[in-house]
Amino acid sequence: MALSSTDKIRQKKQKFLAREQQIIETALDLLLLSGVEKVTVAEIARRAGIGKGTVYKHFESKNQILMRIMLDYERCTAENLRKGIEAVESGNPGAAVKAYFESRLANPALDRLVQQLEIKLEYEADVAPQMEELLEIRRSSIAKLNSLVERQISRGVLEDVPPHFHYLACWALAQGAVDVCFNRGFSEDFGDKEKLLKFITSIGVTMGNRGQFRGSLTDL
Amino acid sequence: MALSSTDKIRQKKQKFLAREQQIIETALDLLLLSGVEKVTVAEIARRAGIGKGTVYKHFESKNQILMRIMLDYERCTAENLRKGIEAVESGNPGAAVKAYFESRLANPALDRLVQQLEIKLEYEADVAPQMEELLEIRRSSIAKLNSLVERQISRGVLEDVPPHFHYLACWALAQGAVDVCFNRGFSEDFGDKEKLLKFITSIGVTMGNRGQFRGSLTDL
Amino acid sequence: MALSSTDKIRQKKQKFLAREQQIIETALDLLLLSGVEKVTVAEIARRAGIGKGTVYKHFESKNQILMRIMLDYERCTAENLRKGIEAVESGNPGAAVKAYFESRLANPALDRLVQQLEIKLEYEADVAPQMEELLEIRRSSIAKLNSLVERQISRGVLEDVPPHFHYLACWALAQGAVDVCFNRGFSEDFGDKEKLLKFITSIGVTMGNRGQFRGSLTDL
Amino acid sequence: MALSSTDKIRQKKQKFLAREQQIIETALDLLLLSGVEKVTVAEIARRAGIGKGTVYKHFESKNQILMRIMLDYERCTAENLRKGIEAVESGNPGAAVKAYFESRLANPALDRLVQQLEIKLEYEADVAPQMEELLEIRRSSIAKLNSLVERQISRGVLEDVPPHFHYLACWALAQGAVDVCFNRGFSEDFGDKEKLLKFITSIGVTMGNRGQFRGSLTDL
DNA sequence: TATGAATGAGGCTTCATTCAT
DNA sequence: AATGAATGAAGCCTCATTCAT
I need a labelling partner for C202 at 20 to 30 A (CA). Which of A156, B153, B181, D144 fits? Predict the structure, then answer.
């Protein structure tokens, strides 16, 4: 039953990577629980059941952990969007918007967290390369969206405004929908969040369609 | 021309209040300039040209300063909304939504700052009473909106969904519109923010109107 | 007996400056006692009877404290050298060298400490401006020495080698003399350090004089 | 052609010793490159192409590595000095001093490094035995020097001062000459370090000779 | 009343050393 | 024997708040 040396090494690497994932998940849990500014490296380590030093074997800095969470999320969102765009091309016109909304509203707490992380990390020098990578992902998504929207405008499905108006409006609504879920005073008493988010998604799917505005866009 | 004792006292009070306002404004400037987590009490005092100790004569804690900024803003928004609702009652159906959007999008940077302050202060014990006050303002606005929306639903202007769906969707869009203005990668290359915000406002004004969804709401 | 407001302010400033001096002196004591790498900011603060934070009201970083000690010492040495050069010009040919040696050997422990500080701080970014200032002081001393030595060479007092040979040799001997005082194994058993340093100073004063080498310099 | 068991063991020992040497050399390279306080065990291991744990199979602690470098150097210097003293006894009076200077100035960077290591390790408990060994080497050299100098004094070659004055002065000059090579501000602009060191060596060879001081030693 | 020096808890990070594989 | 992941003590620095003047 002896494992070969290669196997042992592979096993070790697996364990190492598993621990990395564990750090990220612990960090994520804590971030969701206590808020971005309350989480410390010491606490992450304690909760993950490891030493502080171990964290730094996996990540160069605390910011790198946060950045990793952001990047993972951004990649996931971009992938979902990509699938949605594909579905549009297969003849399902609302699919992209729907996919985007569902991707972001599937876990609003996480989405909101990532929004906050972005604010925190925006100009932190030690994660600049990763931030650039993130922006690159977005730019790629934008490029795809632009051509998609342009086609839909030329087909008369969407209002003839600059393409980015459409997807930025969409993004705005999704962004805001997430906030709705958490803001005290407005939403805390409403138990039917699910339905609300569906309603908002419906708006997202139809907004910007030609004819919706009934003349209110003449001044654009 | 010596001032009477009463006058002197009044003058002093005026000066004291003026200084308080100055602290708030300086803090606001710095918050907008550097971000919520970068501003220190020392810097506020320095920029306001007063001593750090003086700041604590006016506010019990740093959080109280931030809270005050939030409250001022919330009151202003609520007041604008109130005027909008009045206008609706004077026969201008879209006025409330328009007023609300314009109020929040007039200074997106400030709006965004306040969103962040709310996250930061959400569960800080030392501003709990003021936070309650803020929530009270919101509840009051909500009550007004609820009856307004109910009337518009019964008149067939708006879709027949729970009233809060309408204003929360509206709030979400406004919230998101603000974020659009600042997020890197999505919006940095677009110079026509003005028009974009008008476009989003247009969506806000028409969204939720009956007939917009063309059957997509059957499952609510 | 009431002090005027101005007096009070002045008194406060004095106290503040006195504390700054106290920090430097405490730091110096500790550095001499325990070695450059053993002294911590916490320890300095504790020994000075103040809080850690207070240290950072006076100095931007730990390195700045060390740099200050270096600069103070360098200025003092440069001033002593300047006086020595003046004395040379008043007709006392060995005065400069003697002044230099006496200045540095007056407190060998301090001189040695400063040598070590220089190594530590050499390429630390946060004290680069002050390091430049220190080098400027040295350059100024060098310029004076150069012209002095050139005159003595042309008068036939010193060997005709590049001027900097003379003062660098001098500097080397002083530098080394300091080390002699502290190196275990060589000097620990000798109680007559005073006389030894005088002997070395004598060498310093006469070395490089014309005729000393008796032909051993022909290959230069 | 299978190797005998004894041969295999011998081969293994060879390899083990070679690795030890490699660690020392890698450490030395790094120390010269980055400075005593910047080198970590991890970096040494990485550069040597071995694991960190392996380093600790060869040395009990990081300090032991540094100590070893010192001891190697000290032994080398002592050996050179011994040869110089032999040459003196063969009728070459300046040979000892010359050998000593040449030994130390042959690689000033290394000499300087060792000076710094000595400061660092001076009172470190875990290398105390090795430090004692080093001091023993020095004492042995000193004993030889003492008798040599005494003979030269009695022959009228050297000034009649306590013997250790002579070799300590010599040591001081060598020590300082090394520093001259590296100190910024004094030496950075001079390209003719070679000649300078020869000049200083010349001084070393002649200093302390009878008649040099022309009466300036009367007060000793 | 206004001030700003003083405080110290608490955060991030480094690195020599250990030990299970 | 060789490895390198894990550890945690220890260091530097920040900043909201207090308090003597």
Answer: D144
State, as a whole number of angstroms, the distance between the CA of C35 and the C1' of E3. Answer: 39
- The tally of domains found in chain C comes to 2
| More confident position, A57 or A11 | A57
Q: Do the domain assignments include residue C219?
A: no
Nucleotide nearest to A53 (CA to C1'): F7
Asked if C70 and C121 count as a contact pair (C-beta separation under 8 A), the reply is: yes
Q: Where among B16, B44, B59 does a domain terminate?
A: B59
* AA identity, residue C80: N
Which chain C residues touch D200 with a CB distance below 8 Å? Answer: 168-169, 172
Q: Which of D131, D139, D202 sits opposite C213 (nearest CB)?
A: D202
CB contact under 8 A, C203 and D169: yes
Q: Higher-confidence residue: B217 or B164?
A: B164
Say if residue B139 is in the same domain as residue B180: yes
**Which chains neighbour D (Cβ–Cβ under 8 Å, 3 or more pairs)?**
C
Average pLDDT estimate for A68-78: 96
Instruction: Give me the residue label for tokens 């470098």.
Output: D69
Protein-nucleic contacts, chain D 117-156 to strand F, CB < 7 Å = none
Assess whether B155 and B202 both reside in one domain. yes
Mark whether C and B touch (3+ CB pairs within 8 Å): no
Protein residue closest to F15, using CA and C1':
B40
**Shared-domain flag, residues C31 and C124:** no
Cβ pair D172:C169 closer than 8 A: no
Dihedral angle computed from the Cα positions of residues A20, A22, A27 and A32, in that order, rounded to the nearest 10 degrees: 140
Chain B residues with CB-CB distance to A183 below 8 A: 118
Domain boundaries, position D28: 7-59
Q: Which residues numbered 101-140 in chain C sit less than 7 A from strand F, measured from CB?
A: 126
Is D153 part of any domain? Answer: yes
User: Which tokens sit at C140?
Assistant: 């100024």
Do A108 and A55 share a domain, yes or no? no
- Position D217 in a domain: no
The nearest alpha carbon in chain C to D94 belongs to: C216
Contact D198 C185 (CB under 8 A): no
The per-residue pLDDT for range C98-157, each reduced to its tens digit, is: 898 889 999 999 999 999 999 999 999 999 999 999 999 999 998 998 899 899 899 888
Asked if residues D168 and D145 have their Cβ atoms less than 8 Å apart, the reply is: no
Same domain, yes or no: D191 and D87: yes
C87 and C190 assigned to the same domain: yes
Supply the Cα-derived Rg of chain B in whole angstroms: 21
Nucleotides of E under 7 A from a protein CB: 1-21
Q: Do chains B and D touch (3 or more CB pairs under 8 A)?
A: no
Nearest CA in chain B to A36: B120
DSSP, res A2: P
Residue D157 lies in a domain: yes
Q: Is the dihedral of CA C149, C150, C151, C155 positive or negative?
A: positive
Dihedrals φ, ψ of A158, to 5°?
-110, 155
CATH number at residue B35: 1.10.10.60
How far, in Å, CA of A59 to CA of A57, rounded?
6
φ, ψ (nearest 5 deg) of residue C124: -80, 125
One domain for residues C23 and C74: no
